Amino acid sequence: MRDKLLSILSNLAFFIIALVILYLSFRGVDFKQVIAEIYKTNFYWIILSLLLAFAGDYFRAVRWKMQITPLGFYPSQLHALYAVFIGNISNLAIPRVGDLMRTWSLRRTDNIPIAPMIGTVVTERITDVIIVFALMFPVFFYHAELISPLLFEEVLTPLLSRITAFSYSVFIILIIVLLLILVLSKRWFSKFYIKGVPIGMLKSFFDGFRSLLKMNQPINFIILTIFMWAGYLISFYVCFYAFESTSQISLQHGVLILALAVLSMLIPVQGGVGAYHWLIANGLMLIGISREESLAFALITHAASILFILLSGMAAFVPVLLTKK
């Protein structure tokens, strides 16, 4: 009961934060002009973007299967892809729960133990986080002079100028609640998931964690990782051509906006709602795009991504749930 309450409170807190960011993004916007910009969208580029995103998910599924195979399990490639789609849609409901749902999916379809799969997922995520930061830091360092106003003039200064005794108190209370959630979650995790787990299960987890070392062809893992990230990154970049206002954007500015999009996905809110819109819109405004045009770009690209995740996730859930145990 307590773990469910902690999960609800944590997700509610992040959902409120997402709504606040979303409000700040659209405050004072001329929605008629935003809608007019949306009507100008060339949706052929959006469709191409979604096909490239599908390719990225496919390469992720192939890469994950490659990690699982050395452990003595041989999942179907299609089932691995279903698991990736289910993980994506699950993250929309509860941030970061998608990786657990991926393991549940393959457990149901291919009867693979969850513990070693969690180990492979942890390894996979560590690899991806390293790649993400390796890509973002050089971009932000190169554009430090350009993005510093976004951080200081648009975030810190307005925030400090609007702090009142009441808002400060609410902020402190929110921080305390989040800290309590983290502390209680840690104690609960320690009590039930460390002390109570059989040694065999822990060994299976670490076997999965070391799966990269057991690969016969590790170079293929690297190649698939490159293809996967290329699919994801290019799927975003081609969206610039769907809008007249961004179709002539330079490569260096396009890479900056792409880095901001990746950054928004690291923020633990459902589907990047609010964070994505704010970062992308403000990033585009820094390079001379109007606010309405910037928000139209953020709205369409985010909505298309969410639609793809919902459709692919629901399509994957059907055959997985129909699988006989």
Description:
By secondary structure, the protein is mainly alpha-helical. It has 13 helices and no strands. Helix 4 runs antiparallel to helix 5 (98-110). The two termini are 28 Å apart. 32% of the residues are buried.
The beta-strand count equals: 0
Biggest sheet layout: none
Return residue spans where pLDDT drops below 50 for at least 5 consecutive residues: 186-201
Number of helices: 13
Radius of gyration: 21 Å
**From N to C, what is the helix and strand string?**
HHHHHHHHHHHHH
Query: What overall geometry do the principal axes of the alpha carbons give?
Result: globular
Let me know the average pLDDT.
76
The share of residues in helices is over 70%
Strand content: under 5%
- The chain-level structural class is mainly alpha
Give the distance, in angstroms, between the N- and C-terminal Cα atoms: 28 Å
Can I get a quick summary?
By secondary structure, this protein is mainly alpha-helical.
